[in-house]
């Protein structure tokens, strides 16, 4: 499973990512973003447990965050792990992280 989803609280759905986000996980992430778009609820992703993340999963996160923003739906990232941040840095995508609301 890609992540654990927690019920909406004050219109915000919290999604906790699991430790290993591989190519297969990207499809599950896509489904979560589509669900958020359909419900119009803001999405907060807790990335504190991420130990490994594939490029496909990063692409899905970036595309999903952009889709939510375009639809006027909130998106935040909570407690990104060192591995999560490093993966974005390794791909030259630090600016993407800087554009997201990051909760610590």
Can you give keywords for this protein?
single chain; alpha/beta; Transcription Regulator spoIIAA; five-stranded mixed sheet; 4 helices; 7 strands
Fill in the CATH topology: Transcription Regulator spoIIAA
Give the strand tally.
Answer: 7
What would CATH call the homologous superfamily? STAS domain
**How many angstroms does the end-to-end distance come to?**
24 Å
Beta-strand percentage?
A: 25-35%
Q: Helix coverage percent of residues?
A: 40-55%
What does this structure look like?
- By secondary structure, this protein is of the alpha/beta class.
- It has a single domain (3-89), classed as STAS domain (Transcription Regulator spoIIAA), CATH 3.30.750.
- Helix content is 46%, strand content 28%.
- The chain contains four helices and seven strands, in the order E-E-E-H-E-E-H-E-H-H-E.
- It has a five-stranded mixed sheet with strand order 1-2-4-6-7.
- The radius of gyration is 12 Å and the shape is globular.
- It starts with a strand and ends with a strand.
